[in-house]
Amino acid sequence: MGEVIYQYDGSLEGFFCCVYECYAYKETPASFCCEDDPLSLYEVRTVITQNERSRRVQLGISGRSKKALALVRRGFLTCMEDKELHLLALIRKLIAEGPGFLQDLSDPTCYPVYRAIRHMNGELEKLRGFVRFSDYGGVLGAEIEPKNRVLPLLPDVVYLAVNVRGCTAHVQVVERTRPPHLYRDSDVQNIVARRGGLVTEVTALDGAAAVSPGDTVTAGQLLISGAADSPRGVRLMRATGTVRARTWYTLTVPIPLAAEERAGESGHVLRLSLDAGRRRIKFYGGGSVPGTDCAKITAYHPLTLPFGLRLPLSLVTERIVSYDTAPARNAAEAAQREGEAQLLHQLQETIGEDGTVVKTEFSREERGSWLYVTLRAECEEQIGTEVPLITE
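^ that's the sequence the OP posted. Answer follows.
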């Protein structure tokens, strides 16, 4: 045990910075304190809270055990005597031995922390069930005196806490976080079918479901209504949800069977140019892109002096060969494979990422120089789409 006391701001982040200091100075403090001017015969070292150091310590703990990090965070909220020393001992043992000892509730390092957390959990449940509010000049409030720091564990409670430390009063005001409004009251809508199908699942998060599993629907039919009956009349809302259905597709794509192939060389042209660094000097006119029935063969000849010194110059020869073409015919099997690949890609683009292809069947038909490939598919997909609800 070192002859030093760590003084920090009393926050969890400050405690993690103290853990960082322990490993940086290779020492174990005799105690921790949060007072501005502690009375002690030991040396007092003030630890400044730094978010980067706190984050590094938390990453080190969670990398070995996420359960241990949650245990340290919850144990810090307890009223356990010398809680910082107990939590520091737990962290040291975790880093030295691994998380296996956390399963042993009787372990001398874990037992004090588990016992303090059980005491805090019992107090927390009492506060949740038995807090009573009083009228303080038109404002409802409740007075509680918890032994543990349970207020951060009550996220739905709006409170003002005053902690007196010596001659300093720390006031903490916490307000309930209101969830954002998802849409404006005027943004009312229905959900209709973008295509026909057999309904298999209806999930209406908001609004009134107009169909049920097993119903057959057509394109444009109402699925989830944004108008619902209420004791005060019709209530308009933004219909939200999903409707999945079995759908059937018939898609056809034409693939050409006629093609052209090279029959033989009909002539060639030789072109010369000079590369000087990054610049090319052409000794011919026109562009360098050959036609569709031509091929280009390029050769580079670097220039060197008689004694082997290479110059930054290269002679470039381009041989443009033209070919005669002759009519040919693609194999039907290859054309069918190409058509099937195109149809499957088109089908997946149509049903989207959340759609599932249940069954496929292909057929083909030759018509002159074309092969028509047909796909008949059964799918399951989300068919609902949002449309504005007209109230006029």
